[in-house]
Amino acid sequence: MITAILSLGSNSGQRKKYIEAMERELSSMFQSPLMRSRLMETEPLEVDGAQMWYINRIVGGVYDSSAHDLLYKCLKIEIDLGRDRPYNHAPRTADIDILLFGDSVINTTDLQIPHAALCERRFCMEGLNDIAPRLIIPEKGVTVNEYLARLPEHVKNQKINFLS
Question: Exposure pattern of 120-155 as b/e (b: 16+ CB <10 Å)?
């Protein structure tokens, strides 16, 4: 069994309700209770035009199948919660990214672990620090807490409102 770390996000509709729905669905798939970070409201990054801010949370738990199996289940949850993909970086009701899958390093056409943007998104590092500060980030060789303490300025300056 592997500890998987996921990022949840929503910036369309009833954002908090979508986060809660994603957590409920994921809870039923994991072998342990979900670890949950603080809830965060974050400014959209790399988007065209004005969009609502995201509600984000980082969650983790023990998963007993493959990373690709988890990916397909996450995509189904997104679709079931009304996610569509009319264009890249479009607003979304539900967004689930697999950030880490144990100490695995995976680079396939449909899945990259560690997630390509893990260390480029402040909310990911803040949330990961909430649930696993001593976890060593694969390919970086430092703990989450150490990496967070020395975030690059462009990441440190990303706007976050901590909600809980």
Answer: bbbbbbbbbbbbbeebebbeeeebbeebbeebeeeb
Task: Indicate the pTM of the whole model.
Answer: 0.94
- DSSP, collapsed to helix, strand or coil, labels residue 99 as strand
With 90 as the cut, is the pLDDT of residue 87 above it?
no
What are the CA-CA distances from residue 98 to residues 6, 52, 53, 159 (Å)?
5, 23, 21, 22
Tens digits of residue pLDDT in 131-153: 999 999 998 899 999 999 999 99
Domain spans in the chain, listed from the N-terminal domain onward: 2-162
pLDDT of residue 57: 98
CATH architecture of the domain with range 2-162: 2-Layer Sandwich (3.30)
Token pair belonging to 116 = 């390509």
